Amino acid sequence: MRILITNDDGINAPGLEVLTRIAEDVAGPGGEVWTVAPAFEQSGVAHCINYVHPMMIAELGPRRFAAEGSPADCVLAGLYDVLPDGRPDLVLSGVNRGNNAAENALYSGTIGGAMEAALQGLPAIALSQFWGPDNAGLDDPFEAAAATGAGIVRKLLDAGEWGGDGYSTFYNVNFPPCPASAVKGTRVAAQGLRKGTNFSAEAHISPSGRRFLWLKGGNQHVDSAPGTDNQVNREGYVSVTPMRCDLTAHDLLDKLRGTVE
């Protein structure tokens, strides 16, 4: 099996090392793992692509490349430049430092990489490690992902629904904020919503007297609806969420036709 991996935390991020081990496990002894990851951190860029200017790409080692672009850019670079002789069988994006559950999914560059792969007709999975007081101080805060990631990927390859007549399905996987020994299992979960949690902007004055704005995230450890991704993560489960790129509110179409048309 040939696997392409990327992330949004950058080519030197420890989560990418975890993903490399997961991918090597899944690919097997005769497989190939190719890395095309951002040269610098690209957190929060969602599905951004940089089509108004070129990006530099550099080969750092065998099957290992860094590109000055977003995760979606890196997937495109992998498909159309790094791997010109054949497409990968699977694209994995992550392992993100921090959860991409609930509303975070809309901002996530990690998910953006998987989304671009799905738009290119490839099986794709985004993987993220929830951060919290029970794992942040561990020698390896990613140990839940490291211990369970390959098994989750194999299950999705064997039993997941891929492709389709319209937008292809891809998967968003979040590992709980706990040690590997405390992971209770896996739950298929809808995307949640942490009500009252949102990004904001805060002003700071630099030593030179200039005014700058920092963007701030909200509290990640609040409840969402029972059975949703954020909630099952906080209860100690790995969440698996099937996703598509269709943003249509299908439940409103008929009502809107009756008033607008």
Number of strands: 11
What is the strand content? Answer: 15-25%
Largest sheet: 9 strands, mixed
Low-confidence segments, ≥5 residues, pLDDT <50?
none
* Rg, alpha carbons: 19 Å
Shape: globular
Task: Give an overview of the whole structure.
With 261 residues, the protein is α/β, with parallel strands linked by helices. The protein has one domain: Survival protein SurE-like phosphatase/nucleotidase (Stationary-phase Survival Protein Sure Homolog, Chain: A, 3-Layer(aba) Sandwich), CATH 3.40.1210.10. The protein is built from six helices and eleven strands. It has a nine-stranded mixed sheet, with helices on both faces. A two-stranded antiparallel sheet has the order 9-10. It is globular, with a radius of gyration of 19 Å. It starts with a strand and ends with a helix.
Summarize the structure.
This protein is an alpha/beta fold and 261 residues long. It has a single domain, classed as Stationary-phase Survival Protein Sure Homolog, Chain: A. Helix content is 26%, strand content 25%.
